């Protein structure tokens, strides 16, 4: 077995998921239950314990392998099945979305970090975010995504890699043997990000 730890983690999860769905069906409440399976970050130690596919780096980083995760949402009769959503969403979006669905009040002094993503899940709407701000676990690491642009600050740990600018999902930090893109003057490349 090439990755025994990863295999154990994966096979341990599938029966649990099946048991949960089976119990909901048995109690006849599946059609009235919103199910969310999601990760909060990319896998640690990519290639050793986990796999982040072609995405670079892993848990705790601002690279795609640390922040881009899969999720599965199911609610028969409310969310279309067999659909893939490519819109950028954030884990903090679950709070306002679930609060709205349940009728809970979210009145508070400070604005919420998340936004209601129900129209994205049910109607194919665009992401409600103009920008997503991401923080790494190391001091000084941050990223902002606006549309097809993503600016990383402090991601490389070296002065020449202090700023990295990526354009389009097709080129975002895929694993490669070539070096990362050279830092660019972000005001010239993505002026809207600097507003």
Helix count equals 5
Order of helices and strands: HEHEHHEEEEH
- Order of strands side by side in the largest beta sheet? 3-4-5-6
Query: Uncertain runs with pLDDT below 50, 5 residues or more?
Result: 175-195
Indicate the overall shape.
globular
Q: How would a crystallographer describe the biggest sheet?
A: 4 strands, antiparallel
Summarize the structure.
By secondary structure, the chain is of the alpha+beta class. The protein has 5 helices and 6 strands, in the order H-E-H-E-H-H-E-E-E-E-H.
Commentary on this structure:
With 195 residues, this protein is of the alpha+beta class. 24% of the residues lie in helices and 14% in strands. It is built from five helices and six strands; from the N terminus they run αβαβααββββα. It has helices at residues 4-26, 64-67, 94-102, 118-123, 186-189; strands at residues 35-38, 71-74, 132-135, 142-146, 149-153, 163-167. A four-stranded antiparallel β-sheet has the order 3-4-5-6, with no helix packed on it. A two-stranded antiparallel sheet has the order 1-2. Strand 4 and strand 5 (149-153) form a beta hairpin. The longest helix is centred in the first third of the chain and has 23 residues, at 4-26. The chain starts with a helix and ends in a 6-residue tail after the last helix.
């Amino acid at each position: 077995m090439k990755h025994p730890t990863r295999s154990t983690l994966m096979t341990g999860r599938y029966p649990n998921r099946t048991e949960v769905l089976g119990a909901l069906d048995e109690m006849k409440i599946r059609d009235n239950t919103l199910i969310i399976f999601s990760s909060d970050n990319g896998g640690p130690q990519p290639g050793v314990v986990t796999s982040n596919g072609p995405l670079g780096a892993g848990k705790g980083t601002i690279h795609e392998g640390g922040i881009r995760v899969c999720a599965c949402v199911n609610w028969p009769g409310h969310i279309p099945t067999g659909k893939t959503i490519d819109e950028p969403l954030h884990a903090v979006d679950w709070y306002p979305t679930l609060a709205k669905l349940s009728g809970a009040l979210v009145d508070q002094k400070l604005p919420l970090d998340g936004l209601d993503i129900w129209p994205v899940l049910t109607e194919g709407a665009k992401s409600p975010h103009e920008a997503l701000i991401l923080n790494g676990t190391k001091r000084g690491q941050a990223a902002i995504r606006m549309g097809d642009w993503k600016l990383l600050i402090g991601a490389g740990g070296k002065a020449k890699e202090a700023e990295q600018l990526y354009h389009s999902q097709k080129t975002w930090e895929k694993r490669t043997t070539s070096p990362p893109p050279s830092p660019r003057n972000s005001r010239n490349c993505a002026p809207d990000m600097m507003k």
